[in-house]
Amino acid sequence: MKTISLKEILLHFIVLISMGSFAQNQSDRELIVIDKDWRFAFGHLYDTQKDFGHAEGYFSYLAKTGFGDGPAAPGFDDRAWRKLDLPHDWAVEQGFSEKASYSHGFKTSGKGFPEKSIGWYRKKINISQNDQGKIISLKFDGVFRNSKVFFNGHFLGTEESGYNGFEYDVTAYVNYDGENTIVVRADASMEEGWFYEGAGIYRHVYLQKSNQLHVIQNGTYVTSEIQDNNAEVTAEVTIENKGNFKGNIEIIQTIFDPSGKQVSNITENILAPDFYKTVKNTSKIKVSNPLLWDLDAPNLYRLLTQIKQEGKITDSYETNFGIRTIKFDPENGFFLNGKSIKLKGTNNHQDHAGIGAALPDELQYYRIKKLKEMGSNAYRCSHNPPTPELLDACDKLGMLVIDETRLMGINDYHLNDLKRLIERDRNHPSIFCWSVGNEEWNIEGGIVGERITNIMQGFSKSIDPTRPVTVGISSGFKSGISSVVEIMGYNYMGNGDIDAHRNAFKNQPGMGTEEGSTFATRGIYFTDDAKHYQSAYDKKPRPTFYSIEEGWKFYAERPYLAGMFIWTGFDYRGEPTPYGWPSVTSYFGMMDVCGFPKDNVFYLKSWWGNEPVLHLLPHWNWSGMEGKEIDVWAYSNCDEVELFLNKKSLGKKKMEQYGHLEWKVKYAPGTLEAIGYKNDKKILTEIQKTTGNPENIKLSVDKENPSNGNVAVITVEVTDKNGLHVPTANNEITFTIKGGKILGVGNGDPTSLEKDQFIDDIHLVAISNFEERKQLVDAANQPALDEPNAWKEAFKDRDYKNQASAYIYRGKFELKNNVQANIVDFFYKKIGVNESIFVNGNLVNASSEDSQKYHLDKTVLKEGTNVITIRASPLQKVKDWDVMNTDPGIIRIITPSEPWKRKLFNGYAQIIIQKDENNSDVIVSASAKGLKAGVLSVSQKKK
Fold first, then answer.
1. Closest CA to 522 of 406, 619, 637
2. Dihedral angle sign, alpha carbons of residues 125, 128, 129, 135
3. What was the pLDDT predicted at 707?
4. What burial class does residue 33 get, using C-beta atoms within 10 Å of its C-beta: 0-12 exposed, 13-18 middle, 19+ buried?
5. What is the rounded distance in angstroms from the CA atom of residue 211 to the CA atom of residue 240?
6. 816 confidence band (pLDDT: 50, 70, 90)
7. What's the start-to-end Cα distance of the chain, in Å?
């Protein structure tokens, strides 16, 4: 018999107490990303048969609870659908057509393309019995657009806008320890903007589990006031009770500094709200010697809000925030932490080369780093609420943000969207201003615009009084909105007299919410309207618009103007002004859609940044133009620049503030060299060399990629025999990858109609002319199946009480082409038992992984009409009202995609890759005719 010592008993007792204490301090809250393993298929805008029979039932999902039909029904068979991960943009996957939308980049989806307007998504999840008693909800960061969401056949709601986040409580509908089906139908037939918007679930989706007594969605609001090197943090929390608990609860607010060290803590007791009610509580918390959030030191604190109920922590909610001060002054512009800051901003839409609107989180950081490298310190979300990860990137990297709602108005549709935007985003220290509208031409200059602005401005202040409000205005700066908006937003100098407006409204601060709108094509230095290419020299684009240099000079020289936001930082799909088809992207960006810089980037870097800059344009590959004059420009913040061609000086010139330098140079191959001087000392050298022919492919990982990310942006270029980049190369490059996958490709060519993505094409073919007859013989041999007999429409007027022992069914499906290359499968839906299936007289066998899936080998198929025959014993009704399946299934045809490829455009292309999760290296290979292949190994860095 084993004896237990007192020491062992005490040790066991201590462990039990520790486990209990640990359990008491664990929150019930979980937030689980559920982006992986969704099923997707296209429906149809108005043909319900092509929309999988959705909303055809006698009782619709709006008539009776839980009556979701078609793909909204839990039992719907989606095995033949495409499998994918979120975020997903189906529009970018499509081709181009002149008949498609100009504003959306001529992609063949959405408006005018009913067969590519509706997207269905389905996902199955399991929820443990241990979660019973918790609140279970689904959170969507954004679906474009007009989404309907179902859970286990129950209709949860509709979200019209493609830019709002939304949440649904599914607690009542959960199958614990069983299968739960999430279904989303997105309708992208309507456009909200006049720019590319994507289509589908292009932002993250989450499953959230929380205690019945919990902090609501976006339920904290953190502000701070600084005085004498101390900060008083005000933490407001909204608590909801979806249970029956009554009595006191504790609210524990704990602040952690940027290093993770606890710096302050407060506990308060309040009365729990009543059933399905909320209560607000405000705490004042002191932080000594706070580290301020700033552009160069974006310090972030963390507030941990805990709810303790009967001695047990039931909810924990974390909020990142920054301690900082902001102020607009009508005479001296904008101040951050008491320091005057000139806003050096850009406007940006939300798409990127190759991947459309479905940006992985890493791409948000990549793009913000690109802008900061240019010298930019501010970002305007044009013209819609951004994805939360963009704001996280701005918080962490130090980028100021104007956060903008989509549409002006005073009713619930408009104000509720504005409320959700502000409540979601107001804890981000990067946000310094709310924008409640942009270029609303119908109302800008009149009393209606004035009324709407007053209401939206006041409404914004009621939710967040710590930030000012602006509107971007373009149709004159005299009356209407411009007379009442708190911060005047000037859209383009040519649209009105800014100085005159300022003199009339001297107490109104102002900034240029849009400026520039110039046209440039990367790497092009002679405008070619026939090819739709615009020269990259910074020129006045239109009579009433100004160059980037003219715009910056104007704003830089006026202290009362807080700064300006260039239209745009990056090119984007759609709005290919000044052209139309076949141009498919804009020309406005300082960078192209890939983030490759146009030459204007270096002008801005010269005057926005702090580092010495010297940049020469154009390149020096001008074969055939020997002896002809070329405009040579230098962008620099040096005092003087001297230019040399093949070691011969072409003169030294003095740089004017906010200017650039120009020379006329007769072209001769060789070396164009510029030397920059500061205080009469050489500090920089820039060279443009005539290169040889392309010989080698070079792959490199961009330095702006997050170091611990799973997604990487790779630059593709070619070099000559001496390793020099060839700026005129347009070779087509083919890519392969091991240890990961390619998400998209691009090159910045505004006229490129090449594919952005190379994915297998999936086509679902219904079985037509489906007929039946009773089996007259016991054997299921082929001669029996071929016997002529009286066939009739399958299942029509079937007497289920007097069925035959077995039936033979036959139907047809069409294969149009590529029979040898296509992968064809039949996904059988049970219409009987003990079935045998024949295709064109050949018996086919079920697959090993799915007993109702039949792979149809090319040897049994033929181009044109194919016949499928099924022999099965009938299913029996248990109850008279049972609904029997009469659908035999679907044929899925997969046409394998071409290899990934992209042409270089003026020397560059880009591929975006995603690494596998097995921590292995990724190997990317690139090849092209006549060039030496390039290989790149991308190491997986552990987080």
1. 619
2. negative
3. 82
4. exposed
5. 10
6. confident
7. 51
Is the pLDDT confidence value at 8 over 50? no
Going by C-alpha positions, the residue among 144, 86, 562, 492 that lies closest to residue 349 is: 144
Maximum CA pair distance of the chain?
A: 106
DSSP 104: T
SS3 920: coil
Packing angle of the helix pair 388-397, 412-425 (nearest 10 deg): 40
Count of C-beta atoms within a 10 Å radius of residue 169: 14
Q: How far is CA 726 from CA 26, 220, 934, in A?
A: 59, 53, 15
Percentage of the chain lying above the pLDDT 90 cut: 91
3-state secondary structure of 348: strand
Q: Give yes or no for residue 780 having a pLDDT over 50.
A: no
Comparing 414-428, 511-525, 602-616, 917-931, which segment has the lowest mean pLDDT? 917-931
Identity of the residue numbered 281: N
Helix-helix angle 388-397:361-373, to 10 degrees:
40
Strands 431-438 and 469-473: parallel
Cα separation, 91 vs 595, in Å, equals 21
Amino acid at 303: L
* In 354-445, alpha helices (H): 361-373, 388-397, 412-425
Output the six-digit token pair for 112.
């005018």
The amino acid at 641: V
- Report d(CA 137, CA 180) in Å as an integer: 12
How many alpha carbons fall within 13 Å on the CB side of residue 570? 29
- Which 3 state secondary structure label does DSSP give 18? helix
Q: CA–CA separation, 302 vs 256, rounded Å?
A: 5
Report CA torsion sign: 940, 941, 942, 943: negative
- Strands 732-738, 400-404: pairing is unpaired
Q: Between the CA atoms of 853, 859, 860 and 864, what dihedral angle is there, to the nearest 10 degrees?
A: 110
722 by Cβ neighbours in 10 Å (0-12 / 13-18 / 19+) ranks as exposed
Provide the total of helices (H) and of strands (E) in the chain, helices listed first.
Answer: 9, 53
Better pLDDT: 408 or 879: 408
DSSP 3-state percent helix, strand, coil across the chain (nearest 5): 15, 40, 45
* C-alpha dihedral sign at 303, 309, 313, 317: negative
Residue 469 in tokens: 């409000």
Rounded to an integer, the average pLDDT of 346-367 is 98
Q: What is the pLDDT of residues 47-61, one digit of tens each?
A: 999 999 999 988 999
The set of catalytic residues is: 439, 514
Contact partners, residue 920, CB within 8 Å, separation at least 6? 739, 940
341 near 366, Cβ under 8 Å?
no
Q: What is the mean pLDDT of residues 498-523?
A: 96
